[in-house]
């Protein structure tokens, strides 16, 4: 078993233009910042990114938007990004908005081998357009399909050489469900240790889902909304 | 006198009960956390993956890995816990959250809510609002009764794109506390000094007024 790669550039090898990527994080919290940076240094284009948000203008997925490397975003909330808005209004970017819980569950289902499922979210709204409706216990539900990706890119706090991951605080968010749903999942971690050094009772994402792992250095971890007492 | 945003939050806080797990939306709902009654314990859920959300951190103590669903830096209370987004919405969808408080642009007298999109303006997305309104057992909307130009936001039918249908049970506005029932909006309480006639004039949807309507009492 050899999952460890040296850096982000090596980790993203094999990603091609036109592919679908899942990118973990919520806002700027828990995003795989080194892999995103490495993607900006490639000529990859026409990417479809499944990510809860689209970063800000100069950080996170906003960096890929600036370089016009993204063709389509699949997200639940995409505010806080002027370049995103410009590309959307000029028809340069496709956007599919999905209720946040449905997005998370579609990723979970994709990783769990469940092709589709019913949820109540979005019934009676424009999200329901074209979707099968079925009532359970007299309550209408929408049929939603699983999501998978060519590559999923996630970020964790600690990881080991088997790919077992532990997230810090709220930085787990979409990283865990997305880690399960990539055909190839890349994990970047703040601290990489030999297998056996993490407590097996405290692992959030079992290593079976992870194909490549590396330790990033100098995480910026930008704060989007600094609020203090 | 119509209620301030803080007073709307204060009135909603009276609906909290000991042991409640509560999801507070962005805006006025967030202020509810400041008025949790003495002697009861309420656990705040943040849908990005936390139970037991605490206040903003002290100056200099902000942690970029610890944020709420509004992407603000926060803290966690003793007994709090972190989890991933799929788990978070499973507890929402599964009906384990006792109360959801959120804002709205419009509510209809059948309990429909519009809160996420204004056609012609930039569409930012629904975030978790559709999941929350579709699943919560108990939803309170915190909102202004009318728009800045005096148009009612309590309607027969919403004019803006919907967030959910037939899901809102209670509304607290700057003018009144109302239940949403099969008969329409049922007026329960009015803001101090605001008359039933004022509320009728500000409500475009069906409004039911039964007996004497007491004034809102804020502790």
Question: Could you explain the architecture of this structure?
Answer:
The complex is a heterodimer of chains A (229) and B (219). Chain A has helices spanning 8-11, 33-40, 62-66, 82-89, 100-112, 175-179; strands spanning 20-23, 47-50, 70-75, 94-97, 116-119, 133-136, 139-145, 149-160, 165-166, 182-193, 212-215. By secondary structure, chain A is α/β, with parallel strands linked by helices. In chain A, strands 1, 2, 3, 4, 8, 9, 10 and 11 form an eight-stranded mixed sheet that branches. A three-stranded antiparallel sheet of chain A has the order 5-7-6. Chain A is globular. Chain B has 219 residues and is an alpha/beta fold. Chain B is 16% helix and 25% strand. Chain B has five helices and 13 strands. Chain B has a ten-stranded mixed sheet with strand order 4-3-2-1-5-8-10-11-12-13. A three-stranded mixed sheet of chain B has the order 7-6-9, with no helix packed on it. The radius of gyration of chain B is 17 Å and the shape is globular. Chains A and B meet through helix 4, helix 5 and helix 6 of A and helix 3 and helix 4 of B. Chain B: Keywords: Transferase. Chain B: GO terms for molecular function: transferase activity. Chain B: Belongs to the 3-oxoacid CoA-transferase subunit B family. Chain B: This is CoA transferase subunit B. Chain A: One of its GO terms (molecular function) is transferase activity.
């Amino acid at each position: 078993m050899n999952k460890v790669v040296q850096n982000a550039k090596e980790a993203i090898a094999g990603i091609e233009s036109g592919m679908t990527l899942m990118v973990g994080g919520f806002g700027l919290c828990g995003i795989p910042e080194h892999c995103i940076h490495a993607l900006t240094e490639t000529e990859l284009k026409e990417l479809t990114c499944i990510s809860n948000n689209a970063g800000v203008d100069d950080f996170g997925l906003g960096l890929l938007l600036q370089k016009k490397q993204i063709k389509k975003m699949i997200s639940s909330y995409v505010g806080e990004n002027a370049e995103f808005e410009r590309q959307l209004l000029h028809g340069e970017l496709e956007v599919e908005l999905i209720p946040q819980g449905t997005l998370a569950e579609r990723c979970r289902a994709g990783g769990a081998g469940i092709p589709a499922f019913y949820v109540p979210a979005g019934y009676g709204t424009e999200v329901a357009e074209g979707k099968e409706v079925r009532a359970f216990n007299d309550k209408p539900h929408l049929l939603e399909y699983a999501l998978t990706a060519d590559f999923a890119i996630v970020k964790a706090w600690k990881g080991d050489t088997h790919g077992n991951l532990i997230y810090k605080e709220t930085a787990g968010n979409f990283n865990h469900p997305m880690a399960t749903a990539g055909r190839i999942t890349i994990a970047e971690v703040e601290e990489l240790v030999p297998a056996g050094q993490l407590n097996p009772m405290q692992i959030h994402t079992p290593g079976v889902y992870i194909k490549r792992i590396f330790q990033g250095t100098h995480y910026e971890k930008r704060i989007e909304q600094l609020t203090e007492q | 006198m119509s209620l301030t945003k803080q007073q709307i939050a204060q009135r909603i806080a009276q609906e909290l009960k000991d042991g409640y797990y509560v999801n507070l939306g962005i805006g006025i709902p967030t202020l509810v956390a400041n008025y949790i009654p003495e002697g009861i314990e309420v656990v705040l859920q943040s849908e990005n993956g936390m139970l037991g959300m605490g206040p903003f951190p002290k100056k200099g103590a902000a942690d970029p890995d610890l944020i709420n669903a509004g992407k603000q830096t926060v803290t966690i209370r003793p007994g709090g816990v972190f989890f991933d987004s799929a788990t978070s919405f499973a507890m929402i969808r599964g009906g384990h959250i006792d109360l959801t408080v959120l804002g709205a642009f419009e509510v209809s007298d059948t309990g429909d809510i519009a809160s996420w999109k204004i056609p012609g303006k930039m569409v930012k997305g629904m975030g978790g609002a559709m999941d929350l309104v579709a699943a919560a057992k108990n939803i309170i909307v915190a909102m202004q009764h009318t728009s800045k130009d005096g148009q009612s936001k309590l309607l027969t039918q919403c004019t803006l794109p919907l967030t959910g249908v037939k899901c809102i049970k209670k509304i607290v506005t700057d003018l009144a506390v109302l239940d949403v029932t099969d008969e329409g909006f049922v007026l329960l309480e009015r803001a101090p000094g605001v008359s039933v006639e004022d509320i009728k004039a500000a409500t475009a949807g069906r409004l039911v007024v039964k007996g004497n309507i007491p004034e809102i009492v804020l502790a």
